[in-house]
Amino acid sequence: MLxxxxxxxxQLDLHKQWIDSIGxxxxxxxxxxxxxxxxxVAEYPLDQSRLIASTFxxxxxxxxxxxxxxxxxxxxxxxxxxxxxxIKSEASYAxxxxxxxxxxxxxxxxxxxxxxxxxxxRKAKLVNALFYQADFRDADLQDADIxxxxxxxxxxxxxxLQGVIGLEEAFIISINIGTAEQPVILVExxxxxxxxxxxxxx
Length: 202
Fold this sequence. Notes:
Elements: H1 5-20, E1 30-32, E2 50-52, E3 110-112, E4 130-132, E5 150-152, E6 154-155, E7 171-172, E8 174-176, E9 185-187, H2 188-199
Parallel strand pairs: 1-2, 3-4, 4-5, 5-7, 6-8
Antiparallel strand pairs: 8-9
């Protein structure tokens, strides 16, 4: 059952108290299947919240802090998340299709089957993160930093990878240069060499 807007606003207020008091008062925000598109979250913190299967499509959330947030199966399609912080967040199964993620920070983030298709990830910080079966098809990763991150069975067909930083320090287990339906898997050094060619392509 969808929560009324006033109930969500009350929960956002309680979460703000919880953050401001370092957990002494208020209550952590834990919601499931909430559509935030009609709610102005600009004045509310969302770090350390649990936002399961919730909708943020098309919203302007520039510089929003999702530190240690649980975002399982939430959607951010075509959302402006430039400079947003996802440090230590759990973003598995989330959908960032067409999102503006320029300079977003995904340090120590978990991304299992996360969709970044056609997302703008230019200069994003994808450091020390886990990407398993993540979908980067047609995403713009120019000048993104991938140091110490792990990539396994990630889809990269059509991705722009010029200038990607930190390939030598990344853990490249495997990549899929085909499709989900017809995979073409490259493993370890073969995958790394393929990525290196894309990175240095003018």
